[in-house]
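@channel sequence for tomorrow's demo:
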Amino acid sequence: MVADRLNYELFLNSMKTALILVDETLTVSFVNDAALNLLETGVSQVRERPLNDFFLPDNFNTDQFLTALSNGEDFIETEVQMCFRDGRSLMVDMNANVIVANNKHQILIEIAPIDKQRKITQESQQRAQQNAARELIRGLAHEIKNPLGGIRGAAQLLEKELTSPQQTEYTQMIIDQSDRLRKLVDRLLGPNALPRKRTFNLHEIIEKICTLISADQSYSILTERDYDPSIPDIYADADMLQQAVLNITRNASQALKASKTEEPSIIFRSRIERQCVIKGVRHPLCAKISIIDNGPGISAEIKDTLFYPMVSTKDNGSGLGLSIAQTLTDHHNGKIDLESFPGYTEFSLYIPIVKESTKKEVK
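structure tokens (generated this afternoon):
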């Protein structure tokens, strides 16, 4: 029997999938080696401990596991964001199976981290959805702007025929509201100007944004810099990238202020990323700019649509800041990644670094 048990444990420890067995109180009774690697701990530190000790309180759904035990029903969840107490975050697929061992109901949890290839596929799907939404908006904008031009022109002609100042107030109101709607449509379409590229140090634009944040006397936010000085100068439109980073930073600042976060902070981090895949193209070298805040995080309900125009977490927000940031980054063949959970939100911009011989202006 002892030999059989050792063989079973050897087999389970050879698996790449993390296995965690918990009892009716959700206390850990068994973990394999893959689970220890996932939790980054040892056997003595994990056994006989509640499983939720390893995760952020809002991230571990205790009721879901207890309901499964009570009803004897298995469940599967895909693309779950696991947020550990040590600050790590990981996207995983999870399978929870209710089993009976020693006359007790227990749950065997299988956790499989999502690999990079699956993440690339997910990014491709999101990009396709964003492109479809952008094309839809362009079509609607065309249909709206044409009648608006006619309405405005008719109001101007009518105004010339009127003699009463009271009546011309109405025509002027039509003209003003037509202009307002036209400007809104133009904002929805996003920036259309071609990038005016030059070679510059990436940290120049980040420093300007840090100065703007520090100058805001209405709300004090600690800004931290974590730069990689080895990043070479990049060939891009400095104003466009500055606007993209500024839009994201403003969102972070507003989220911190609205949530009244204690000791609010924003970290600006720069790194080099090698062999980075963007829109199906592998780039040998990319500059990565990360804007990290310790605010409330972004709800899972809007994560997939956050970069769509008119999508906002704020009651009075226009929902255009992140959409414009996405468009400006697209102009540089780059991408924006998002990782968020309570107490941590990170937006990362990836901008390809091209060699001197391949630098070409966009025609």
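heads up for whoever presents: The mean pLDDT is 82.
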